[in-house]
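Study this one:
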Amino acid sequence: MKRCILLVLIFLISVSVLNAFNTGKSVLFADSYMLRAKGVEAAYWNPANLKQVKGIDFWLPIMNLGISVNNNSLDLDTYNYVVSQDFLDDEDKIKILNKIDGSLRSAVEGNISIIGFAFNNISFSSSLHLTGRLAVSERFVDLLLYGNTDSLYVFDKSTTDISGLSYADFTFGMGNFIIPFIPEPIPKIRAGFSVSALVGVGDANTQEFNGYFNSSMEGLSLQQDISLHTGIGGYGQKVMLGLASNVTPQLEVGLTLDNLFGKITWPFTTEARNISITADDVYASNIDEEFYDYTSETVDIDTYSTELPPELRLGALYSMKRANVSVDYLQGFKSSINNSNIGRISMAAQVLPLKFLPIGMGVCFGNSIYPWRVSYSIGLHTSTGEIGFGVQSIKQLFPSYKSKGLSIGSYIKVNI
């Protein structure tokens, strides 16, 4: 039993795939990045700020990335404790279950740059996005730890789910358009847009997850039905619109609408994997026999689409000579694998003790499905380029064994 528990914990803590980063550098600011993004990155955060004053801003392949592994409940300290015990007593089991709020949710987020460049008020770029999620019902963990202490356990898709999505974008952006006919004394408002052609790599989503485990005088019974749809090879599109304005020389505000017309269609290899497990009237005396029926069927299915619902982001950035602070609010209009209809707030600050040495810190307050996180970063900026690295701790102030996960981000770009 302990070995099974450890396997489940390892799987949930370290192997699973939620909200992908727009660009890797946003990890350094806990997602408070809408008005900080310049050059190539502005096309992913606010194309109104697409203005390259001098030369070409070049995005080095692979070197701009963000990767995160996290979950909402368990940490490595809990894992190490379980490993060190010969057996788990009731107090240990209660400790584990108390960390889980209805469902144990785990996530991996990822973004990797492919290529990008910006000049004047135009940019072209491409990057790879990875996103997905895994959720396991608290009732399943309870059954794993205690055995069948209740007569009936019910599982459904609301608390148990698995899905994944990966795609590449090819994005063209234009910005720094001044909206005409704005009367004085209203500050000038800049506008911009970016259009992305999307190439779907793969998709997997749980269509159905229904089951029960029942214990009675007539023995044990279980029923589990799972339907998983997968697609390989797809195409799609999305559009972002952005506005920005300098209310004062120090204070900038802006907003974006992302994922307009966002959709990926999977017309090539699409399949449904249907799994059913059934057992009736099982007793200890026949547990060594083939006491359950297992069926698995894979069938071709019609073309289907993955929606990328629209998102609204509001932001403000206050800049001083050697420091700046920002705040972003993100609100999705519909939940999907790629976003949530539950809003969240991020804040970040950056100081420059030396003109070329930015040091940053950010915090995202999270929501019921997106764990709160704190980021720390350092960089090096010169007239010919930028380099930087950041780390993010999930549900813990500093990265440690108490963290519910870890994110890393890096960026390198040059001006030529």
Remarks:
- The longest helix spans residues 2-14.
- Helices lie at 2-14, 42-45, 76-84, 90-98, 138-146.
- The chain has one domain: 2-415.
- The first strand starts at residue 52 and ends at 59.
